[in-house]
Amino acid sequence: MKNKLVRYLIIMFIFFVIDSVLRFYLPSSILKLNLTIVPYVGVMMFDLLTNTIDEDHRYIFAGICGIYFSVIYGNSIFVYVLLFFMYSFFEKRYMKKAVMTYFEAIVIVVLTIFVQESVLYSLMWITNTTQLVITTFLIKRLLPTLLFNIVIFNGVYFIHDKLNLEGDIDVYFS
Known about the structure:
Elements: H1 2-25, H2 41-50, H3 55-72, H4 79-95, H5 102-126, H6 134-163
Helix pairs in contact: 1-2, 1-3, 2-5, 2-6, 3-4, 5-6
């Protein structure tokens, strides 16, 4: 069992590295329109892997991934650890280790990215770090981020499917 946890952590590390590379090479302003795109490749793979990890290691996995995300991307804002625990809890509660269809996976990923971006904007707004109006945030950051990640999700889902990490149990048809 611990072997599976280590394998998942290695996969997550690779996808967080891919995420970092994308963040570095994406231009900060697309087409001079001040659109901000934030890739969430690591979070997408986390969502897919959380569905298949054992109950005993689910929250350990979420904690390690949340701490890594907080330190590397969030400048030590440990609210991300709580978010990763929340994602794990809801996936455990509602997915019941079913084999995720493409549609279910994309809905979960879009909701996860929406929650993460909303929490980040809320924290920045509460602490007066940003003066960005909510409509500007929605149009110039959230919408481009969601659209970009929906396109990138196809590759992440393909890789996840090819790695054959999910079990054969489908609670809908068994």
